Amino acid sequence: MMPVDGRAGLNCVPQTAADAGSSITQQGFKITTRKLPILKAEPIEQMTAKLGIAPPEMIFGDNMVSIEHSSGWGVNFNTYDALDRVDKTGDSMLQVAHSREWQSTREKKHEGITEVVKPFDWSYSTDYKGSVQSKSPAFEASTKAIPLELLKRPDPILFFDEVMLYEDEMADNGITLYSCKIRVMPQRLLLLCRFFMRLDNVLLRIRDTRIYVEFGTGEVIREYVAKEEQYEVVRQKLASRGQDVPAQLRDPNNLNDLLLIVDKSLESLVVR
Amino acid sequence: MSDLDKAISELRACKIIPEPQVREICHKARELLIEEANVVQVDAPVTICGDIHGQFHDLMELFRVGGDIPDTNYLFMGDFVDRGFYSLESFLLLLCLKVRYPDRITLIRGNHESRQITTVYGFYDECLRKYGSANVWRYCCDVFDYLALGAIVLGTSSTLEPSFMDHSQAIEPVDNDVEIEIMNSRNEVTARFPRSRRRLFESEALNSSQPGTPSKIGPSGTGATSDAGGSLQSGGGAVLCVHGGLSPLIDSVDKIRLLDRKQEVPHEGAMCDLLWSDPDEIDGWGLSPRGAGFLFGSDIVKRFNHLNDLSLIARAHQLVMEGFKEMFDSSIVTVWSAPNYCYRCGNVAAILELGEDTSQGGVISRSNGDAGRSLQLLPSNGIPRSGPGRRYRVFDAAPQDPRGMPAKKPVADYFL
């Protein structure tokens, strides 16, 4: 039977917050961003079947950022691939702060209901570093860091965009999201793709992937840094600084230096 | 013009009202709400709305699309506050309207109408920012504790009346066979679904011979109703409205009536479940992967509806891109009324209109406990119970006031 929902009322495709695509080409590198509304019911069903897990509540399945070189090399960040790297088994599943309290009272009253439905990592933690479009040249381990000094120069920003891939409110137990931010200057670009998760009273995570491109030399650097810290530790650090804790906890930029590095990698390649 | 009417017109203009007046309105609202049962009885016609989340301009759009109070009778299923930038104005306006027209608007509690949740998700910060102290937040939280947990809509029609705004066009008679109609914000019909999709679950529910199939006859939504009862008549049956969903501790609407609701939303128990649980494509009950919270399947909803003589459960709580989503052979519907949620999702919103059953000269075909009374009205061919005629009005986000809104184009910054 056909499920009934608003998809029949098709005259109402919203245009807000939608941006079907914008791009810039700089010295052989084409940078494209695409921003569209969250997915409708049918594509969500398709994605659920393909992924094998329930996608996040706000799923910007059509959104993406890509960097393509005229040689055929390219890297892009898309929602499906980011979610495909989420643990689908439930082995690394987090539990909300009041879970133990909740379950202890529940076990006594409802012995029948103990099965967790479709367990998976519902924090949607991903170690996604982007989808590379061709095998060569391949990223190789490197020791050369992203040249921050060059990025701190006030060069004109020719292109700037922010693209959300997914977001989930964790049933009001915090926030988890994956967002991308890109700026293109005349000689270089920086793309920051960030996974941020705050499970209230439990844990904070930031996983940053940075792609740096120097147009003149064709050098591409990819840096991945994963950080974590217990919620309470961060809360105390913020409180001792005398800051407004709830507001600070909403902005990953304020938390970056309070979390401990748990994983890190540096790679590079040169495209010609 | 009374102070209350002045406050309403200020709030309609998205302006805040003085703190002493907030205090007074909250006090009056509490006096009204304290008299309401845990499950408020609402007579059709009624327009059912889902989450608002402080999106004030979209609430104004909702009233434009659905009609203004008191012309339209409204039922809001909670989550008035948090996330959006105008939780205060949105909630205080709804509250003022409640005080002004208590019989034309029903407010039930969502999981965001809680001290703990509002401190994390924006309402508390908004009160501090707009009033310089947490007093207004405290007044509002005291009101939250008195909000009803659910509502039951009686006297619905199984057919659709012409839309109330149809007089602008040539009145097109709505076929009696139409069960679902979808309209856009310009009052144009975009889809109709005939009642041919007879629901199969009645026979399933009956055949599975669940223990506790009622044998008494009583009002819909009480443990005393009968399978011989109520909605086999021309009416559309009773509709239960809750914010989240069902609870394994609750097998009858009467059990909701027995809860002590006047408290902060607890972390566990029936009251928590009603505000937090979600339907899912599973059998029976399940635990959410999050470690707290229940999921319930199709069989649970169908059994609950059968035992309580309900034709439909309407709930909110979950974002749906299309504004509404019927599940489990139309035994439950999610209604979502915050378009372009969080100002970035690009989703549409919907409200659900249920018409009034006037087929018996205005005598509502409500089971009232008279044994056998409804039996006379049984159709001889034994057509199974079917849901009320449902009109969904789907609408987009209002053009936003530029003040305080996130810029559509992100502002370039030298991030590292």
Automatic annotation (TrEMBL), chain A:
Pfam families cross-referenced by the UniProt entry: TIP41
- Transmembrane regions: none
Q: Which domain of life is it from?
A: Eukaryota
Q: What range does the record give for the signal peptide?
A: none
What family does the entry list?
Belongs to the TIP41 family.
Protein's recorded name: TIP41-domain-containing protein
- This protein's species is Stereocaulon virgatum
Taxonomic placement: Eukaryota, Fungi, Dikarya, Ascomycota, Pezizomycotina
Automatic annotation (TrEMBL), chain B:
Judging by the UniProt lineage, the source's domain of life is: Eukaryota
Compositional bias of kind Low complexity = 218-230
Which UniProt keywords are present, listed alphabetically? Hydrolase, Manganese, Metal-binding
Which residue ranges does the record assign to the Serine/threonine specific protein phosphatases domain? 108-113
- Classification via CDD domains: MPP_PP2A_PP4_PP6
Q: Which Pfam families match?
A: Metallophos
EC identifiers of the protein: 3.1.3.16
User: Region (Disordered) spans which residues?
Assistant: 203-230
Looking at the keywords, is tRNA processing present?
no
- Family note: Belongs to the PPP phosphatase family.
Q: What is the protein name given in its UniProt record?
A: Serine/threonine-protein phosphatase
